[in-house]
Each structure stands twice: as C-alpha cells, then as structure tokens.
Amino acid sequence: MTESDMTGSKLVFIDIDGTLADENHIVPESAKTACARAQANGHKLFICTGRSVPKIERNILDLGFDGVVSVAGAQANIGDKLLFQHLVSPEAIDAAMAYFAEHHIESYQWQGADGMYISEGYRRHLESKGKTWNRGEFARFWHLLDEVEVPAGSTLGHTIHVSKGSYFTGPELDVSFENTQHDLAPWFELVHGSYDKISPNNGELLINGIDKGTAVRDVASLLGYAIADTIAIGDSDNDTAMLKAAGTSVAMGNAIHGIQAFCDIITTDIRDNGLANAFKTLGLA
C-alpha cells in the first residue's frame, strides 16, 4: 500500500516564477496560507522549478516545502538529502558553447548545485537591469565564465558541473528558437524559457530525457505515490513536461505558450489568488 493510499495524501508540484511567485519574486499571502493549509491536511508540496537551488530565494525556501525539484527536473532534494542529480555531459556543454560563439548568442548561463555560471553578455544584462547579481544572498553563487580556470588540455565542459543551460538573443536574430532547437538536438531538449519579456528568442537547454516530467515520476516513485495522486501547477512551456506527467494538471490564469489547451484545470491569475483558488478547487486547502 502506498503512502497516498493510506493517507489520501496528494503530491503537489508547484512552479515558482509566474505560479508561486510574481514577476517581482513576491509570493502572495493567499498562496502562503493555502500551502500551509494543504500541508496541515496531509499533502506533500514540492517546488518544481527551472532554477538551481542556489538561485531560489531564502524567503521561498523558508515557507517550508516538503522538497525541491530544481534545474528543470535534473535534481531533487528533501532538505539536505539528495534524491537524485543529473549533470550535463562535458561534450554537450562544449558543443553549446561553440554554437553560442558561432551564432553570436552572447547572453547565457549554466546552472547547477554549485551556482550560476554566466557569460559576459548575461552579466551586462543583469547590470543594465540594476540587478545586484554580485551582492546579497546569491553573491557567492554567481560565477563569470570568463573567470573560470580551465586546466591545460581540458575544456570548460570538463571543468564545471551543471544541470541545465539557458540563453536569450538580442533583437537582431542570427538563428531562431526553432533553428537552435534543431541544431542542438543531439545534446539537448530545448524548451521556451522564462525570458519572454527580455527577448522573444530564448530557450532552456535541458538534458535529453530529463525534465520536470521525469522528476514528477521519479519523486512519486521514491515517495510511494501513484501518478494518479500527483498534481502539477505551472504557467509556461517549461512546465509542459510536468503538467503532462502528473495525474492532474493546473494552468495558471496568466499562463502562456498555450499550455491551457492540455491542462485539466485553469485557475485564476497569480495576481488574483491563482494558487489559492487552485488548491480550493482541488480540495487541498
């Protein structure tokens, strides 16, 4: 008998950006209350985000989730306990770096448990937005790729340990998202990222065969939940895999990329208590 059979417990996976937290990284009070009530009712809540753990604000982690799926499904933790971790192969990193150089893609980053490795172009973007990337709670986790010491005879891919990449281009496109998706297919699964407001041409580079959907299945299996007792809540294309994998899928009212078409439930906008209303509809809180 599984844990969910014994308790009626659901295993809920919640995206951060646009789902749990708004564009200012603020979690609505209604969402905080709903999450606490759902846990009090015996349900388990996991963050399921494209971010690496070092890029998740402490005030979000301090809300007390039961676990965290990070780097788009490549890693899962319950507290300090690592459930699983997948790394991008050195060859894939080197292939992407060569591709970025060839096609003048200057703004990109690699993310993993060690932090965020960013290009000079991405650094300039952060500074232009007034982001204090090298100060505050995340400062020690930011690394400039130009400053990574690659041993003689080695490559960047063999030097850094990361679980996903992401990029965006300038307004003058050298290659489209579809071009990049096709060209990097031997090494990566490409999905639209969360940079739409910065550039319409952006993407996340996921390890082939690993995504938020495989994480939903693997975490459920490890914790003894049937897929029918899993719920996923998201707002964009990079949530597609988990929404399709879960027993019940919920699209936020502010969802983009057409994900509403295949979700079981569409809740209200994040600014209109979207998460709390989803929990109410689902009978979680």
Question: Which features characterize this protein?
Answer:
single chain, 285 residues, alpha/beta, 6-stranded mixed sheet, 14 strands, 21% strand
Strand composition percent: 15-25%
In the sheet with the most strands, the strands line up as: 5-4-3-2-1-12-13-14
- Cα shape: globular
Query: What is the H/E order?
Result: HEHEHEEEHEEHEHEHEEHEHEEH
* Main β-sheet description: 8 strands, mixed
Overall structural class, as computed from helix and strand content, comes to alpha/beta
- Helix segment count? 10
Low-confidence stretches: none
Radius of gyration: 19 Å
Helix content class = 25-40%
Mean of residue pLDDT values: 93
Total DSSP E strands: 14
| N- to C-terminal distance | 25 Å
Structure description:
This protein has 285 residues and is α/β, with parallel strands linked by helices. The protein is 28% helix and 21% strand. It has 10 helices and 14 strands. The chain has helices at 3-7, 29-40, 58-61, 90-102, 120-128, 156-159, 177-183, 212-223, 240-245, 274-282, and strands at residues 11-14, 44-48, 67-70, 75-78, 81-85, 107-112, 115-118, 142-144, 164-168, 188-191, 202-207, 230-234, 248-251, 265-266. An 8-stranded mixed sheet has the order 5-4-3-2-1-12-13-14. Strands 8-7-6-9-11-10 form a 6-stranded mixed sheet. α2 (29-40) links the parallel β1 and β2 (44-48).
